[in-house]
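[User]
Um, tokens okay?
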Amino acid sequence: MDTKETISVLNDLIETSKDGEKGFRECAEDLKNPQLKTTMVQRAQDCATAVAELQQLVRSLGGDPETSGSVAGDLHRRWVDLKSLVTGKDDEAILNECERGEDVALKSYRKALDKDLPADIRVVVQRQFQGVQRNHDQVKALRDAERARS
């Protein structure tokens, strides 16, 4: 894989991680349970850290790092807002949408790991993928616990 392709893959992951950061922040704003809010704020910060790391990799390759999320991420958040107006913003529904966002992130990271990335970059992407998997599993467990309470 040439440098240009590697930069493109990293920039796609930056968009995905920016989407995650925004999504977790919006979830935190809408959640009623203070512990869930705290968890989502922490996940948003984890995404911001991932973005900074990926942006630094792009710079080290001589590229211009992406600085915003994706159009698809914005559309998803708008759809979630619209759906929330109709169905109400209960914590279970918010966590369900948050998990859906993490499904997209997992898919993006898997796609990146299917590429022939340089070894040093693959290590970072693999570590971040594991973080996305942890986020997904945690959000799913929180959603399931919320569902059991209702």
